[in-house]
Write a structure and sequence with these properties.
Elements lengths: L6 H11 L7 H19 L25 H17 L2 H17 L5 H8 L9 H19 L2 H10 L5 H16 L7 H13 L3 H13 L12 E8 L7 E6 L5 H11 L8 E4 L10 E3 L18 H6 L28 E6 L5 E11 L9 E6 L10 H14 L1
Helix pairs in contact: 1-6, 2-3, 3-4, 4-6, 5-6, 6-7, 6-8, 7-8, 8-10, 9-10
Organism: Candidatus Chloroploca asiatica
InterPro entries: ARM-like (IPR011989), ARM-type_fold (IPR016024), MM3350-like_sf (IPR024047), Plasmid_pRiA4b_Orf3-like (IPR012912)
Pfam families: PRiA4_ORF3
Length: about 400
């Protein structure tokens, strides 16, 4: 999932407070004027300097707009034309239209959303966000309209050729059933388990496992009885020091955290997070320590999956779901494969970032305790930087003041 808010959660939040209905005549006139102007601008030359975003109505893209059928169809056609332009300005206008079409919640838009999943053009930076709109809109129609066709479209998206679409489908399928309190059908559970175990993309395996976890189905445990070997290196450390640590698949990210600290002879006295795609502040793939990340919702010890959408829909959290943090995140249930690199972010003040690469998986663990350090190269970098003599002088001055 991306760093931006999920469209589904925005739509649920807004529609819980302002249910879709007939558009105010004043707003309708503004929307029609904007659509007319966009049509004229798009009919011009592709290289013209017209700013499409300047033609939008003078209100936020999250304004609850319920478009009449004729304007919804026009908005859909214009969104496709804007997508083919491929500029940043066109993307801003496209996002406005997609929000309005999504909030309208018309089942007649199903073919439009499905077509967006397959829309391709070169150097299309808005494509990931567009796909997120499309899969989120399918989930919204499933939740609010109980549309069998929308559920079928989400099922089909699990098999899409694009891995981002598959990952979002795995995420949103959980929302589509849990928010309206509908049980997941057996065929959906089977499909999610297949994605969790066999999909070649980490994002798909992980999102499928998180959805299964949320609905109370244990995620698959990979390589039970085996050993994961992680090679750990501090980013930007010129010495190149590394530590290779062995852990069992049944152990947790917290075990990995303490093993890294022990291997580098550091003090494990600060907050930390693991970013499972190796990118810092990637909230959709962050698992924090039990005390949380001060810059994220995980500070409150909540499972970030689906929470915002449920609260927006007025559904209470399932108290039976154990909060997901480093103490409960089992290594063998994360969907990791050899070659995958995590980011271990330790101490938000001193900003230590470690690359943690899964270098091999041994099929059978040797007897003994785990975690264990199996290889060490180079001197460990210091945990706290600065001149030690100056630190000693500061300590002496402090003692004299006392």
């Amino acid at each position: 999932m991306g760093e931006e808010d999920h469209p589904l959660e925005d739509w649920l939040f807004i529609s819980a407070r302002v249910p879709p209905g007939n558009l105010d005549q004043h707003f309708l006139r503004l929307v029609r004027t904007s659509l007319d102007q966009l049509e004229k601008a798009l009919a011009g030359e592709a290289g013209s300097k017209q700013r499409f975003s300047d033609l939008l109505p003078p209100f936020s893209e999250l304004t609850p707009l319920t478009l009449p059928p004729s304007e919804r169809e026009r908005a859909q056609q214009l969104a496709v034309q804007l997508a083919k332009r491929g500029t940043r300005d066109a993307a801003r206008a496209e996002a406005f239209l997609l929000n309005a079409i999504g909030f309208t919640q018309a089942t007649e838009s199903l073919p439009f959303w499905q077509a967006l999943l397959d829309l391709k053009r070169s150097r299309d930076s808005f494509a990931p966000r567009r796909r997120q709109f499309a899969v989120g809109a399918l989930a919204l129609l499933a939740i609010r309209q109980a549309s069998p066709a929308a559920y079928a479209a989400l099922d089909a998206a699990l098999q899409h050729t694009n891995e981002q679409v598959r990952a979002q489908a795995a995420y949103y399928l959980g929302s589509a059933y849990t928010i309206p309190r509908r049980p997941l059908p057996e065929h959906v559970l089977v499909a999610l388990n297949a994605c969790a175990s066999n999909d070649p993309a980490f994002e798909v395996r992980y999102q499928a496992r998180m959805t299964l976890r949320y609905v109370g189905v244990p995620a698959p445990l990979d390589r039970p009885g085996g050993v994961y070997l992680f090679r750990v290196q501090l980013r930007d450390d010129r010495s190149g020091a590394t530590r290779t640590i062995a852990l069992r698949p049944e152990q947790t990210l917290e075990d990995l955290h303490f093993a890294i600290q022990d291997a580098f002879a550091w003090d494990a006295d600060h907050l930390y997070s693991f970013f499972l795609r190796g990118k810092e502040f990637d909230a959709a793939y962050e698992i924090s320590g039990p005390d949380g990340d001060p810059f994220a919702g995980a500070l409150f010890g909540e499972d970030l999956q689906l929470i915002t959408g449920e609260e927006a829909a007025g559904v209470e959290d399932d108290e039976d779901v154990e909060p997901l943090d480093a103490t409960t995140a089992v290594l063998g249930q994360l969907g990791l494969r050899v070659g995958h690199t995590l980011l271990y972010y330790f101490d938000y003040g001193d900003d230590h970032k470690f690359d943690v690469r899964l270098v091999t998986i041994q099929p059978q663990a040797e007897p003994g305790d785990y975690p264990r350090l199996v290889e060490s190269t180079g001197d460990a970098p210091p945990q706290y930087y600065g001149d030690e003599d100056e630190d000693d002088e500061d300590d002496e001055d402090w003692e004299e003041e006392i």
